[in-house]
Amino acid sequence: MAKKSFLDFEQPVAELEAKIEELRYVQTESAVDITLEIEQLSKKSQQLTKDIYSDLTPWQVTKISRHPERPYTLDYIHGIFTDFVEMHGDRHFADDLSIVGGLARFNGQACMVLGQQKGRDTKERTLRNFGMSKPEGYRKALRLMKTAEKFKLPVFTFVDTPGAYPGIDAEERGQSEAIGRNIFEMAQLEVPIITTIIGEGGSGGALAISVADQVLMLQYSVYSVISPEGCASILWKTSEKAEVAADALGITAHRLKALGLVDKIVNEPVGGAHRDTDQMVSFLKRALGDAWRQLADLKPKELLERRYERLNSYGRFTDTKAVK
């Protein structure tokens, strides 16, 4: 069995799992039957995990959303879609590997699918720039979406980024313009767009591929204008206040659903998506099917009107009279 990675608040579960592995090893190496003891400890571990995950803080949810074993965009593409053909490059500068996308089929329906891709090991993370896209990445995404519009194909996007790449080279090539252009163009794209926040949804880096008709969010993912560490560094001049910032930002799925920024929360397996990728793929495929059925029969005019109303509904304010 592959060794599991546990977060700091999961240490009681980690200790139980270590005992279970020891017992399994003993049972393999000896003739003693300790199956009952293993089953009892496994049930205890499962219940302990449920108890821990029933009362998570926003900062703990943030840690889960960044778990290195969490399924990434390509895991969902290969698990949910068929006949995937990857498309590369923005036809202006380069092929940004932090964004992957191409033509595919969803339940037999031709579509365009794209999303941010983080790396599993150091080499791939460097290659994918840790999921932080540069202007050419966003221009590649826009090229794919405009291609989908040309052939009247629905667009599925998957968001998983700490934010757009903030380097000098990205700024020199028009990072802010690329993000703004994507938001502008997606708002008026004449095909259905379904976005899923699968891990981190960070700042403009996430917004650039998440202007959609339906926004889904995995149970233990986060979506925010800035990372908790970035917020803490600005407000308190130290990233050590990240936990406080996470509480204040309202970055969790249930908070964002209550605010109307997310349409549906997709439940994750006990212990998070990384504990059972196959089950997570199954849950998300069903949710995407439901979302697609709500949009499939809408004409372009209806689609754009609904999207415009949706965007205008974001945010609330109270108009009060000035006190004399």
What does this structure look like?
The protein has 324 residues and is of the alpha/beta class. It folds into 2 domains: 8-55; 62-312, 2-enoyl-CoA Hydratase, Chain A, domain 1 (Alpha-Beta Complex), CATH 3.90.226. 47% of the residues lie in helices and 15% in strands. It has 14 helices and 8 strands. The protein has helices at 11-29, 35-53, 58-65, 73-80, 122-127, 135-150, 168-172, 175-187, 203-207, 228-235, 242-249, 253-258, 277-295, 300-312, and strands spanning 82-86, 99-106, 109-116, 155-161, 193-202, 214-218, 222-224, 264-266. Strands 1, 2, 3, 4, 5, 6, 7 and 8 form an 8-stranded mixed beta sheet that branches. The protein starts with 10 loop residues before the first helix and ends in a 12-residue tail after the last helix.
Task: Outline the secondary-structure elements.
Blueprint: H1 11-29, H2 35-53, H3 58-65, H4 73-80, E1 82-86, E2 99-106, E3 109-116, H5 122-127, H6 135-150, E4 155-161, H7 168-172, H8 175-187, E5 193-202, H9 203-207, E6 214-218, E7 222-224, H10 228-235, H11 242-249, H12 253-258, E8 264-266, H13 277-295, H14 300-312
Parallel strand pairs: 3-4, 4-5, 5-6, 5-7, 6-8
Antiparallel strand pairs: 1-2, 2-3
Helix pairs in contact: 1-2, 3-11, 4-13, 6-8, 10-11
